[in-house]
Write a sequence for this structure.
């Protein structure tokens, strides 16, 4: 990899203008557990790329959603592979965020001046869970439908604002085509944009504050 990077650098001149970014001091106690955040970010990128490919063929409609998923699996060349990669990268993303959070907690990397970075990580986890929940409905089969009915019903149990929150999540009193469109919009647009903004802030703080050396 070093030779490949040197070859690229000889053509594009990457090292010299970006020396402060590419070369920075690292703590002595660094180990592979510090790569969990990077692995989570890689899985996020995989989810975004495969999601964009799936959106070419997916139809967010009550009558066409399930048919389009079947078409992706059975008719689109390598569609089954793209969909499986999207599914597993999304699942592994949540797992690696949890593992990364555990590592940050154990090493005390959440302590000042990095408390805002900890908060950014918490929001990243929340949005990753929301992405998984909204994406679960998109195949529009019986399993996805009833899981969404149960999941969204929990919003209705919130004191005082439960009914309004339920209407906001579902787009109406029942899970229907309006809910599908709303979840699709959240899954492919709003949640990824919010995650991208938070990750930019997260990486900015890591760059400015450096990597914590742990306890």
């Amino acid at each position: 990899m070093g030779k490949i990077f040197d070859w690229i650098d000889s053509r594009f001149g990457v090292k010299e203008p970006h020396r402060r970014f590419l070369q920075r001091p690292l703590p002595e106690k660094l180990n592979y557990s510090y790569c969990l955040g990077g692995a989570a970010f890689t899985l996020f990128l995989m989810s975004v790329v495969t999601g964009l490919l799936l959106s070419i063929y997916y139809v967010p409609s009550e009558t066409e959603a399930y048919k389009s998923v079947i078409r992706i699996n059975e008719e689109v060349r390598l569609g089954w592979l793209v969909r499986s990669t999207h599914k597993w990268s999304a699942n592994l993303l949540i797992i690696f965020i949890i593992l990364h959070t555990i590592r940050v907690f154990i090493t005390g990397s959440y302590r000042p001046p990095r408390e805002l970075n900890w908060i950014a990580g918490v929001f990243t986890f929340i949005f990753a869970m929301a992405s998984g929940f909204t994406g679960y409905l998109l195949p529009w089969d019986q399993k996805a439908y009833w899981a969404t009915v149960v999941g969204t019903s929990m919003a209705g149990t919130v004191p005082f604002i439960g009914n309004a929150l339920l209407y906001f999540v579902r787009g109406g009193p029942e899970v229907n085509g309006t809910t599908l469109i709303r979840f699709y919009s959240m899954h492919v647009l709003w949640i990824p944009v919010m995650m991208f903004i938070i990750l930019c802030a997260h990486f900015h703080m890591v760059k400015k504050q450096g990597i914590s050396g742990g306890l």
In short: Residues 40 and 93 are 5 Å apart (CA to CA). The radius of gyration is 21 Å. The domain at 32-138+192-209 is CATH 1.20.810.10 (Cytochrome Bc1 Complex; Chain C). The chain has nine helices and no strands.
